[in-house]
Amino acid sequence: MKHGFVKAAAATPDIRVADVRYNQEKICEMIQEASDCHAKILVFPELCVTGYTCGDLFHQQVLLADSKEALLKIVEFTKDKDMLVFIGMPLSVDGKLYNVAAALNKGEILGFTTKTFLPNYGEFYEMRQFTPGPKRARYILFEGKYVPFGPQLLFQCAQMDSLVVSAEICEDLWSPAPPSIGAALEGATVIVNLSASDETVGKDIYRRELVQGQSARLIAGYIYANAGDGESTTDLVFGGHNMIAENGMVLKEAKRFQNDVIYTEIDIQRLLSERRRNTTFQAPEERSLEMIQFGLALEKTELTRSFPTQPFVPGDDRMRGERCEEILTIQAMGLKKRLAHTQAKTAVVGISGGLDSTLALLVTARAFDLLGRSRKEILAVTMPCFGTTDRTYRNACQMAVKLGVNLREVPIDHAVRIHFQDIGHDSQDHSVTYENSQARERTQVLMDIANKDGGMVVGTGDLSELALGWATYNGDHMSMYGVNASVPKTLVRHLVKHAADTADDAELKEVLYDVLDTPVSPELLPPKEGNIAQRTEDLVGPYELHDFFLYYLLRFGYEPEKIDRLARQAFDGKYDSQVIQKWLEAFCRRFFSQQFKRSCMPDGPKVGTVALSPRGDWRMPSDACAVGWLENFKKNEAR
């Protein structure tokens, strides 16, 4: 449960209809298995103690008595199990029969959650045997103890108060107003569903969409346990379609028609972060639901779920292609509007033969196409200087030609040397002044050309560079519109690759692929034997690591200790722990110290959920201290 991770399980036991003792044994076997796997929340299907398909046998006293006896034995079995268990069963109360979810914890019955919506259509006729649950929870006497009984009961972990669990039963989810809505608004972070949903053609797709949608709408974890093999097949077949979802994403899904247990970890901290950000997620002024405490031992949860190394980039090929196309369109539409509004005669793009300027030029070409204007009105400017290599120069020029834009070359080495004389800088001193003078000279050239030609400068810097402050203040840091401002470096690469993959011109395709193969570099230091001497990732660290850190720091507000843990899991076998720690500490330091550059960054379109615009997503003082984040990191380092 460290860092907010809670191991959850959804289990479908191999039952026999109306053979309660057999079912009890199978349920206990699965409880033992889940306990051995350190699951903290375990959910069984609807009416699994008896079987959902008992029909009118539910009116038989023998079945009800056996069911109650089985529950008590299961409760006893959980006495030494460190978990919260939900069991589906029939329960007779005040002469009425209810379909309930019994919540068990360490040998105690915490409460009985009642089913609110009973299906009585098609193949279902539950109202023949059962009564809908009461509108409000109350206490009933069960085996000499008063136990909460009713809908939307909330079960809160005493050792982790953010873990609040509530149950609903099958049809409750399919209704227009699922009970889980009220439970989530009053604090439930995990919803469990004990279900008996039969299989018909295509129903699994709709079921999955329901679970995904409800977990997204409630910003909650959702554990769905479905009845399976063992139920009567007189008219129906049940597939054991178990799922565990988190905020719209299915983390784990069982293969249908195989009675099984699925496990994964729900990130409660991530859910709370989302809820805090979402101002439409508003708790009622007065709480009305019953809150029942339970206990779990705090321990470090072993992570079995995977974390993508590139969280900004979809893993699926088809989805990645669609996402790239969408992002390129968003970027181009943003620039299109700005060009039209300013009545710019031209767009000026500084091109280096690197990834960022390549993407900016591709976006600018697309924007002019959308405007119905000739690409010849785009001015691509290459400004070779001390660090420019033949390879990047050649790629920049050929790309401009193949895209059909106007190419201009403005060598800046002479101007920079004069500037060195003006400020008294030795040209053999390759310090930061040597580098930044070139970056600022290039920006001055672009700005003045834009003024001269009645145009605007299109910025090339990306989100990763903004996060790290890897830009020269008032140099490449500045433009009139930054089309890449919310695109991280790992995504820039995929956008350029998408453009290469879909290019009709073979020569343009070849150039773009070579750009992708070129090391990332500002090219501000003289080449060594004709090759790039200055590799950005040798200086600031691998961009894939920094983008990983950036995503989890900004998107969910995770502490460095947790980000470090996730990075070790994601990059296991590629980077060792010392490398990850080194660059994570560097990221935290740079992210805080370089905010002043982001505080005055140019306008640019937001393309994803993580952005650093000081006018929109990220409003941070330029002199905020990183002490707390670095101390958190060092605590983890000490362990």
Describe what is shown at a glance:
By secondary structure, the chain is of the alpha/beta class. It contains 20 helices and 20 strands.
Range of strand content: 15-25%
Tell me the distance between the termini: 17 Å
Let me know the average pLDDT. 95
In the sheet with the most strands, the strands line up as 6-7-5-4-3-2-1-14
Spatial shape: elongated
Low-confidence stretches: none
Question: Can you offer a commentary on this structure?
Answer:
- The chain folds into two domains: 293 residues, Carbon-nitrogen hydrolase (Nitrilase/N-carbamoyl-D-aminoacid amidohydrolase); 322 residues, Rossmann fold (3-Layer(aba) Sandwich), CATH 3.40.50.620.
- The chain has 639 residues and is an alpha/beta fold.
- It is built from 20 helices and 20 strands.
- It has an eight-stranded mixed beta sheet with strand order 6-7-5-4-3-2-1-14. A seven-stranded mixed beta sheet has the order 13-12-11-10-9-8-15.
